[in-house]
Structure formats: C-alpha cells, structure tokens
C-alpha cells in the first residue's frame, strides 16, 4: 500500500515537473527587471528657432533603441512645452512638421523646419551643410544611442 502511494506521488511529481518545464518554454516570462535592461538610447535634440540662430533650445532624451523620431518629439513635447509641434500626415511618408516651438513655416519667405542628423553637437558659429539633412521624415528616423538631431527653422532656396 505504502509502495503504491509512493509510486502515485512520484508520478504526480514528475507530471507537475514536466508541465512547469514545458510552460517555461512556451510562455517566456517578461519581468520588470527584463524591461529595465531593454537597451536604451540617449540622444541630443536641439531646436534652432530662427534662420540666424540667435535662439536655441536643447534636450537630452532617453528612449528604447529604435524609437522613431516622431515618438521622441512627442516625448520632448511632454517634457518641455517649447518642444510642442504640429504635423500633417502624408500617406507613405508619415508626418511633415509645419509648426514647432510656436514657429510656423513661412511659405512666403521660404522658411521651413528642416531636420539634420549630426556627428557633433550643433554649433551656431558653424552651422551644418545640407549634407547633414536626413534623407527621410520623422517617422522613418529611428534613434540609436548618442545620436544628435537638430531641427532648424531655416531658409530654403529652391533651385
Ligand atoms: C518641395 C519639397 C519640400 C519642401 C516642402 C514645402 C513646400 N512648400 O514646398 C521643403 C523644402 C520644406 C521640404 C522639407 C523636407 N523634405 Co521634402 N521634398 C520636396 C519635394 C522636392 C517636392 C514635394 C512637392 O512639392 N510635391 C508636389 C506636391 C503637389 O505634392 P504634395 O504631396 O502636396 O507635396 C507636399 C509633400 O511632399 C510635403 N513634403 C515635402 N517634403 C516632405 C517630407 C516628408 C517626410 C513628408 C511627410 C512630407 C513632405 O510638402 C509638399 C508641399 O506641400 C520632394 C521630392 C519630390 N520630387 O517629390 C521632397 C521630399 C518629399 N522631401 C523629402 C524629405 C526627406 C524632406 C525632409 C524630411 C528633409 C529634412 N531632412 O528636413 C523635410 C521635411 C521635414 C519636416 N518639416 O517634417 C523626401 C522624402 C523621403 C521620404 N520617403 O521620407 C523627398 C521625397 C525628397 C527626397 N527624395 O529625398 N521638402
């Protein structure tokens, strides 16, 4: 009787062990600790508020690696109202920023918000050339650690 009882206990133990092991493989646990270890990126985000660069504003933003710049802009706006913006959506290309930091694009004088990805922190005494303009809009820019972005309210010369 005692042997039979032991046998049943052993069987149930093995069954529970098997189910627990299987469950761990099928449903990986995602704990807060894992989340904290998610690779994050700290980027520098600067606004040059006029074409002559006499006013500027800067923020460092930390977000998960691969976050879109559009989401970074939303985060920046929630942290600092000077980074508030307005955008129009274009199918296939995403958001186009027409107003930022209270400054709306000026179609008469051709002043627009243009975004640059730089290799060094922006320096008003040495503004970046158009070579540093991003080739895509804010929804298609995905951040990596130590990236440096500049949105410049800039004169654009159409050729
Ligand atoms: C003119 C133009 C601009 C003008 C638009 C203002 C104006 N009043 O004209 C200015 C110089 C401001 C501009 C800015 C930018 N542009 Co642009 N632009 C063009 C261009 C040469 C013609 C668009 C056009 O007039 N089409 C004809 C009209 C009738 O159609 P439309 O749909 O109404 O056009 C509007 C949209 O295209 C919008 N628009 C213009 N550029 C961009 C960029 C993005 C990402 C979005 C969502 C919308 C958008 O403005 C146009 C006028 O209202 C195109 C190239 C092309 N040949 O299409 C590039 C083009 C659309 N631009 C491009 C880019 C990358 C940008 C910038 C992101 C560059 C930068 N690094 O700053 C910025 C936008 C930044 C922001 N504020 O969000 C890329 C988009 C690539 C992509 N798939 O994302 C294109 C395709 C050029 C290229 N091949 O690189 N642009």
Automatic annotation (TrEMBL):
GO biological process, one term: cobalamin transport
Signal peptide boundaries: 1-28
Keyword annotations from UniProtKB, A to Z: Signal
One GO MF term: cobalamin binding
InterPro entries: Cobalamin_Transport
Source species, domain of life: Eukaryota
Transmembrane segments annotated in the record for this chain: none
A GO cellular-component term linked to this record: extracellular space
UniProt xrefs under PANTHER family: TRANSCOBALAMIN II, TRANSCOBALAMIN-1/GASTRIC INTRINSIC FACTOR
Protein's name according to its UniProt entry: DUF4430 domain-containing protein
Organism of derivation: Rhynchophorus ferrugineus (Red palm weevil)
């Amino acid at each position: 009787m005692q042997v039979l009882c032991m046998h049943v206990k052993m069987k149930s133990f093995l069954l529970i062990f098997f189910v627990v092991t299987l469950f761990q493989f099928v449903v990986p646990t995602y704990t807060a600790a894992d989340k904290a270890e998610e690779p994050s990126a700290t980027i520098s985000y600067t606004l040059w508020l006029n074409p002559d660069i006499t006013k500027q504003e800067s923020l460092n933003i930390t977000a998960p690696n691969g976050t879109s710049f559009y989401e970074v802009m939303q985060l920046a706006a929630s942290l600092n109202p000077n980074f508030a913006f307005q955008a129009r959506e274009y199918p296939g290309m995403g958001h186009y920023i027409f107003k930022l930091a209270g400054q709306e694009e000026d179609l008469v004088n051709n002043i627009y918000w243009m975004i640059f990805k730089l290799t060094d922190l922006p320096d008003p005494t040495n503004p970046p050339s158009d070579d540093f303009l991003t080739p895509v809009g804010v929804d298609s820019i995905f951040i990596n650690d130590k990236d440096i972005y500049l949105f410049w309210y800039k004169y654009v010369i159409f050729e």
